[in-house]
Specification:
Blueprint (H helix, E strand, L loop, with lengths): L6 E5 L8 H8 L3 E5 L5 H8 L4 E4 L6 H6 L5 E4 L9 H6 L3 E3 L6 H16 L2 H9 L18 E5 L3 H11 L4 E5 L5 H7 L2 E2 L2 H7 L2 E4 L13 H5 L6 E4 L8 H9 L5 E4 L19 E3 L8 H19 L20
Parallel strand pairs: 1-2, 1-3, 3-4, 4-5, 6-7, 6-9, 7-8, 9-10, 10-11, 11-12
Helix pairs in contact: 1-12, 5-7
Length: 331
C-alpha cells in the first residue's frame, strides 16, 4: 500500500449541490477533493495537472489531456459509460479508468417500462387533452393491448435482465440479442435469444441496452430501422449515439416506425429546434433514467471509494481497462 500522506483528487465537473459525499469518503483514504467546473480539454488539463486522480461527469478527458497529466494514477467516471474518456490513451499511459458498473439498474429498468407503458397507453396525450378540457377517450385511438406483444432487448446485461423481469408482469414476450453472452444466461432469465435481424423484425418495442462503442455507434441506422415493424416503438435509455437520429426522424416522419421513447440524445442536450421534441409519437426525457436520490448517493460514494482504492494500489471494483489489473492488489 502506498504511504503517501495526502492525495489530490480533482472533480473536473459536477452538478451536485456540493461534494460532501466525495469529501467524506476520500478523506478516509487520505485524499483531499478539489472541485472544478471544466467543459473543455484545456480546462481539464489546467485543473488536473497536479492531480493524483480525476473524477468526471461530462468533461472530455482526451488523449492530449491524459498525456499532460504527469501525476495522475486514476480517472473516474460518474456512471457506467466512459465515452468521455479516451480509454485506450489511458491504458497506454498506465492510468486506471474507473466507472461505477452497478448503481442504478432498478431505476433504469423502471424508467424503461414507464416509457413503454406511457407510450402504449398514450398517457402524455390524454394528460394534455384533459388539461385543455377535452374529456374523450377516442382522441387517443388506436391503443393496442400490451399483453402478448414482443419486447426486444438489444443487449442483455443487468439492466436489460431487470427490464425483462418487469415485463413479464405485463404479459410481454421478451426476446434479446447479445452475441457476447452464453445461451444459459438467456435460458435462466426465460428470454429467447435471437439474431440481430430477427430482433428487429419481431419487436413491437425495441429497448436498447448497450454501451456506446465503435461497434454500437449508429448501430440503429436506416437499414436497421427498415427491418422493423411500422407499428413498432424504439426505446433508448443507453446512449444517444447508438441511434442514427436523422434516420430515426425520417422513419417516424414517413410512417415507417410508429414511435420512439428516448432518455438520451446525440448531442445532449438536444438542440431546441430538434424535430423529435415536438413529435406527438415521441417521448423525450432528459437523461434521467439513472436518477433517484438513493442511486445518486450510491454513484458518488462508490466512485469515490474506488478512486481511493486505486490510489492505494488496491484493485478498483469498476476498473474498465482490465489489462492494468495486474498492477493492483486484490485485497
Amino acid at each position: 500500500m502506498n504511504d503517501k500522506s495526502t492525495w489530490t483528487v480533482v472533480v473536473t465537473d459536477f452538478n451536485y449541490p456540493n461534494l460532501s459525499i466525495e469529501e467524506e469518503e476520500l478523506s478516509r483514504w487520505g485524499a483531499q477533493v478539489v472541485p472544478a467546473q471544466c467543459s473543455t480539454p484545456e480546462q481539464v488539463l489546467a485543473a488536473g495537472t497536479e492531480a493524483d486522480a480525476l473524477m468526471s461527469q461530462y468533461a472530455p478527458i482526451t488523449a492530449d489531456v491524459i498525456r499532460g497529466l504527469g501525476r495522475c494514477k486514476a480517472l473516474g467516471r460518474y456512471g457506467i459509460g466512459v465515452d468521455n474518456i479516451d480509454v485506450q490513451a489511458a491504458t497506454d499511459a498506465g492510468v486506471a479508468v474507473v466507472n461505477v458498473p452497478s448503481y442504478c439498474e432498478d431505476e433504469v429498468a423502471d424508467h424503461t417500462l414507464a416509457l413503454i407503458l406511457a407510450w402504449a397507453r398514450k398517457i402524455p396525450h390524454y394528460a394534455v387533452e384533459t388539461r385543455h378540457g377535452v374529456w374523450d377517450w377516442k382522441t387517443g385511438r388506436p391503443i393496442r393491448r400490451i399483453q402478448g406483444q414482443t419486447l426486444g432487448l438489444l443487449g442483455f446485461g443487468k439492466i436489460a435482465r431487470h427490464v425483462a423481469q418487469r415485463a413479464k408482469a405485463f404479459g410481454l414476450r421478451s426476446i434479446a440479442h447479445d452475441p457476447y453472452l452464453p445461451s444459459h444466461v438467456f435460458t435462466e432469465a426465460g428470454v429467447e435469444p435471437v439474431g440481430f435481424e430477427d430482433l428487429l423484425a419481431q419487436s413491437d418495442f425495441l429497448s436498447i441496452h448497450v454501451p456506446l462503442t465503435d461497434a454500437t455507434r449508429r448501430l440503429i441506422d436506416a437499414r436497421a430501422l427498415a427491418g422493423m415493424k411500422p407499428t413498432a416503438c424504439i426505446v433508448n435509455t443507453s446512449r444517444g449515439g447508438v441511434i442514427d437520429e436523422a434516420a430515426l426522424l425520417a422513419a417516424l416522419q414517413e410512417g415507417r416506425l410508429a414511435g420512439a421513447c428516448v432518455d438520451v440524445t446525440d448531442p445532449e442536450p438536444p438542440r431546441p429546434d430538434n424535430p423529435l421534441l415536438n413529435m406527438p409519437q415521441v417521448l423525450v426525457s432528459p437523461h434521467v433514467a439513472w436518477y433517484s436520490e438513493e442511486s445518486q448517493v450510491d454513484l458518488r460514494r462508490k466512485l469515490a471509494h474506488d478512486i481511493g482504492r486505486a490510489l492505494h494500489g488496491l484493485l478498483p471494483t469498476g476498473l474498465v481497462n482490465k489489462s492494468l489489473a495486474h498492477r493492483f492488489h486484490p485485497a
